[in-house]
Amino acid sequence: MKRKRKLQPKLSDLIPDPKKRKKVEEALYSDSPLLGPDGVFTDILQSLVNASLEGELDAHLRSEKLWGASNRRNGHSSKSVKSAAGNLEIKTPRDRESSFNPKIVGKWERELKGGLEGAILALYAQGNSTEDIHRMLKKIYGVSYSTSNISEITERVWPEITSWQQRPLQRAYMILYLDGIFFRIQEDGRFIEKTLYSAYGVDIEGNRDLLGLYLNKKEAADQWLLVLEDIKRRGVEDIFFACIDGLPGFKKVIHTVFPQAIVQRCIVHKVRNSLRYASDRQYKALATDLRKVYSSADRLQAQMALDEFEEKWGEKGQRIAELWRKDWEDLMAFMDFPQDLRKMIYTTNPVENLHRILRKVVKSKGAWISERALIKQLYLALMQNQKSWKRKAYRWKAIQEQLEFKFGNRFTKFLDN
Fold it and tell me: Phi and psi dihedrals of 413, rounded to 5?
């Protein structure tokens, strides 16, 4: 049996008025704008919306007739509605009983559903100010939103942020990357620097997630204690690895809340600090020799490589070797595990990559008018870029087997049955 070809709607179906249809046809084959106050698609969308409203009323009257009501049409009311194609002049049909409530554009609505609100949030998530968004909407779409209207729209996301910040977490996380990033915020008439505390985790199934964003004063161990206590309050019973930088007192704070956690100092941070002593001419050679230390097969080989490094580089090598020996246990914690797992825990780079997303979004802004404005913009930016930070860990099945062998029941009790 020959399949019937699906008929595509014609322009005459979309725009019955011949004069309007001719205007649209001419615009499509010229350099006329597609969107905005004089855009060709504005006419098409306006006709579609008005036709849909007529159809909605027809369906409403048919439904009422089935129930024995004698309701009928009673003219139209006009209003201007904002949309991504520009301002639309809408003619809403009325009925005698005033029982008709259209769905596509409600009685009191002044914006087409699914229209500009999403665009406003997307623009805000990209780091644009309310003033920037006001100008862009005017220029691109020909619609005027005041900065206060735009701010009100972005404020509607706040209950979602609160819910996300307070959501229950997994019972255990294999790895927790902990790091801070600084922002300038207006407070009491002056701009001060505050730290955004990021807790970025990998759960038992290898799924990455940002557990929370916490804004407080300059980074300090006692502030991290508050962050970890909140994470525990939201349901986390155990952390297997905590990857951190060299903040004084950080390890003690972690063990206060999660006593069994293995604390791994970031190797990359230590290398950067060590190479501060290097001249441009020596930088590459020093970095190559230091790499032999942290890429060793085990702790013994790493110790031998550090001794060789110290002997080779003399006074400079001695100064760098002292830095490494001072934090040796925490730097070498990853050496007790197989290569796949080592690659995941030897550095805090994963959370720093997350911070790069935030810096990219907000690089053009020097400061924020409030903590609330900052958190709102960062949250929207993260939600729009989830694919870049919420993916599953690489080769997790193999890593999971290694963890099961290493930690036994402490690990397996958290696996889904």
Answer: -65, -15
Q: Are residues 88 and 174 in the same domain?
A: no
Over residues 330-374, the pLDDT tens digits come to 999 999 999 999 999 999 999 998 998 888 777 767 677 888 888
Q: Tokens 């409600």, residue? A: 106
What pTM does this model have? 0.72
The answer to whether residue 352 sits within a structural domain is yes
CB 44 within 8 Å of CB 15 = yes
Residue 176 located in a structural domain: yes
- CA neighbor of 272 nearest in space, from 340, 220, 325, 347: 347
Note down the domain range covering 197: 169-368
Element (H, E) at 244: strand 238-244
Judge if 347 and 218 occupy the same domain: yes
**φ, ψ of residue 199 in degrees (nearest 5):** -115, 105
Digit-coded pLDDT (tens) for 119-134: 677 777 777 777 887 7
Per the CB < 8 A criterion, the answer to whether 91 and 76 are in contact is yes
Residues 243 and 345 in one domain: yes
Q: Is residue 159 part of a domain?
A: no
